[in-house]
Amino acid sequence: GSGPGPIASPDSHPTVTPVLILPSYPHNWSCSYQRFVNCYRCFYKLQPQLTRSIYDQFVSQIQASIKEEIQEVKNEGNLEGLFSSLDKIVEETKDREEPAWRPSGIPEQDVCSTMVPYFLKHRSHLRRILREKEEENKKVAEAVLMGRDRIAELQQLIQAHEQAWQ
After folding, report:
1. How far is the CA of 145 from the CAs of 39, 43, 157, 159, in angstroms?
2. Where does this chain mainly localize (predicted)?
């Protein structure tokens, strides 16, 4: 329908929360009520007063359940405690002159500033392990070559003994 929506109404009460449509201000939900009537047109033609009261109950029930949901989310996540501790942290850091952990405000840049030193340290650790493994492999390869040489020497010795015996 046309006309002002539930939020932007020039004569709405200044303390009315824009998200929740309050039944005590009829001009706020005239569009909403019109849609409700359109859905239940046959019922509205028979019982207009009853339709209005059902709509009022419906809206107040929705508002109550939304408020309960919000309260439940606040309780479950301990949001009020978290927000108050966050406020306390903000208050404590008001007079601090050095920049916060996220001075740039660009998440990628700030994560890099924290993570890059860690990754560099990890990389140097992995490189050290790699060098150790390469040294081990070199020693093993040398031992294998020495073993082969020794086998070749023994084979020649065996052949020499065979020929001498024949």
Report:
1. 90, 97, 18, 21
2. nucleus
Give 112's Cβ-side CA count (13 Å radius). 6
User: Which of 16, 18, 28, 15 has its CA nearest to residue 56?
Assistant: 28
Say how many residues make up the chain: 166
Contact (CB, 8 A) for 59 and 26:
no
Report the candidate in 53, 61, 3, 11 with the shortest Cα–Cα distance to residue 32: 3
Q: Which two tokens stand for residue 73?
A: 């989310």
| Structure-token pair, residue 97 | 């002159």
Under 8 Å between Cβ of 28 and 6: yes
Q: Please enumerate, as own/partner, the contacts of 90-98 that have beta carbons within 8 Å and a separation of 24 or more.
A: none
- Checking if the pLDDT of 144 tops 70, the result is yes
**What is the residue whose two structure tokens read 């084979």?**
155
> Which pair of tokens denotes residue 40?
């239940």
Q: 3-class DSSP state for residue 106? A: coil
The structural domains of the chain, with segments of one domain joined by +, span 15-93, 107-165
Which three-class secondary structure state does DSSP give residue 157?
helix
Query: What is the pTM for the complete model shown?
Result: 0.34
Count H helices and E strands in the chain, helices first.
5, 0
